[in-house]
Amino acid sequence: MERTAARRRSHVRRPAHPRRGCRRPRGASSRGRPGRHPHPPRGRDRQSGRRRRARGGDRRRHALGGSLGVRRVTAVVVAIPQPRADELAAELELEGVVVLSVVGTPVAVGAELLSGAGAIIVPASRAVLTADLIATCDRAGVRIIALGGADTRLLSRLGLSASLPPDAAGWQVAEALAADPEPTTEGPAARAPRRVIAVWGPQGAPGRSTVAIQLAVELSRRGRSVGLVDADTVAPSLALLLGLSDDAPGAAAACRRAERGVLDAAELTRLATRIGAGAGECEVLPGINRPSRWPELSDARLRAALMACRDWVDDTVVDVAGAFDADDELTYDLTGPRRHAATSAVLRDADLIVAVATADPLGISRFLRDHAELRRLTSPTPLVVVVNRVRHGPLGIDARGQVRRTLERFGGIDDVVFLPFDQRATDAALLHARPMSEVAPRSAFVAAVRGLAASLSPEGPTTTTAGSSRGSSPAFRRLRSALAARGGSPGADGPGSTS
């Protein structure tokens, strides 16, 4: 009897959906459909998961328009050399990016080609990234995507993001179009206004040209594009101090082209000579090789040239003569050229004037005598007074205090910048015909001008060796690279760093 009852209990059918605490029989489904195992084999589950994720990604991509970049930029202009231009256009079409046109020569890009475009793809080279192209893109609201290994400093000066590889695929360009552009301190929206900085000083060689050269170099090291112009019609010296040919066209040729209305940024770049010093470089327009050629730098010509320079570089540093003769019109013919019209034109059109005086009794006396006439001519243009060649010899103890008190008493000048006298660095710069920061980067004069450039720069402080007495000499750059490869830096936290 007991065996028969046990056999009957074994044939009792269990419910298909067990309650809490009961084990689901093998082969039963959680949804009440027997025959389907709740846990399929592991390999099949992985493959089906991949398919589901792929289908979901395709649905999201199609919902965005075929590519992540199309959500932000739907149409581009490809302006790179052939045959890569056609290949990149085809790859972008596969990514869902609409290619409006393919231009083999970026120079031919005009406002009509950019109509309806959200971005333009160009090579990252100085010949292509001109001021005209950038201005055209800014007016049209078109973003620039650069391809190639261009200098990052050049791209930051132009307000552009980092360039892509020269052989970047279509999906890489699409990702760059979808991403937000990297914020730059010098973009078209945040870029400081372009300025003309005049470096003036009374007669007697106070060091105008030396200060102008080093100031231009330090401004360029802070990320500004700088042009250095020699408008001295009495004793032009920039070409000799920098080892340039005095027969170069320079400022005189720029004034002649400006008078005819054909002077632009490209022509100024062709006429200028580029010099590099440490981490910065600037464009130089040498002056006239003989003072007798002063009529070539007339008032109207030079003002037109300075107007073109504002579209050429961020800062134009102009070295002028000491005599400006504001009352020339009383002694000269009104229709004829005036002897010192170049100096007067630069001082009137300048956005900032750096007035240089020598730290000795004769230099301070000459400066105070001409300072009142300078302010009458240029007011209310900002004026920065710089006292050069500060030393104890001509003035005795507390030379800076004596100069400061004299300028405040007789000229009402209470803000003065002092530049120390460094004879060894000056001689080295004259010997090698190079900027002082390149031959003597640890000079006290270089450090003082670096501080002056920091105070005059519209941007905030940068990390380009600013505040370091070692500057950016080649030997220190090699040492810094070697220590950085090992995991340390001589200017990071060590005793050699300065704040």
TrEMBL record:
Keywords: ATP-binding, Nucleotide-binding. SUPFAM superfamilies: P-loop containing nucleoside triphosphate hydrolases. Residues 1-65, 456-476 are annotated as: Disordered. InterPro entries: P-loop_NTPase, ParA/MinD_ATPase, YlxH/NBP35. Residues 1-26, 49-63 have a biased composition (Basic residues). Residues 460-476 have a biased composition (Low complexity). PANTHER family: SEPTUM SITE-DETERMINING PROTEIN MIND HOMOLOG, CHLOROPLASTIC, SEPTUM SITE-DETERMINING PROTEIN MIND HOMOLOG, CHLOROPLASTIC-RELATED. This is P-loop NTPase. It comes from Microbacterium algeriense. The lineage of its organism: Bacteria, Bacillati, Actinomycetota, Actinomycetes, Micrococcales.
